[in-house]
Amino acid sequence: MNSRFGASYARRGQPLPGIPCLDAVRAAPRAPLQGRPALGLLQWPCVNVASRDVCADMAKADILIGIYFDAGSSTLNAGSMTGYDANRPFAADNLRLGTLLQTDVLAAMNAQGWDIPDDGVVSDSFLGGPALSDAAAAYGHLLLLGPADPGYFSTPSTMPGALIEPLFITDPYEGSLADSALGQQVIAQGLTTAVEQYFGPQKQHGQPQKKRPSDRSAGAKTGPGSGRKNTKS
User: Is the pLDDT score of 165 beyond 80?
Assistant: First the structure.
């Protein structure tokens, strides 16, 4: 269901050396804020999902963010969705991070006039493609975010995390945004804002309502994918 884009980790302190940074996030223009903690934002080109948890743990990351582009069976599938795992000791922080990612990345994209649908913040059990084995189906979580499961998965992440799927690459309009330098930069700006807010003073966030707009055709689109009008199924 999703197409790998990357996983990034953030921690307070100086940026960590030796690991390629997520260039778009690194390049996002941010004005210095008084008293704002320095953040190291990293991308790890891991071979498999389970190893990304290990990488985050080795980096002593404070949070783990999965960044994926979604894919659907129809070109009408569209929108941004964020997943979190509710079965972890830090589930409340998972939800808070996921809510910030969904809100800030969507706001950054739609401030460009792109009219990306809000598919909400959901349990990670709703994300991912068809299970590749009976054991994977029984596990019922994303390995990137989920808990340990004896005999199946022994190296879960040890910090709050969430996974955002900001665009559908199988939707021609959203795919063109995902492929553009501007689209990637705007997503990076939203990610950066979310991370800064996560480490800043906490605000109360209620359980977000899952939204699935049925019509994206109203209003003109602007930006790299302008001109595409479709209906979300």
Answer: yes
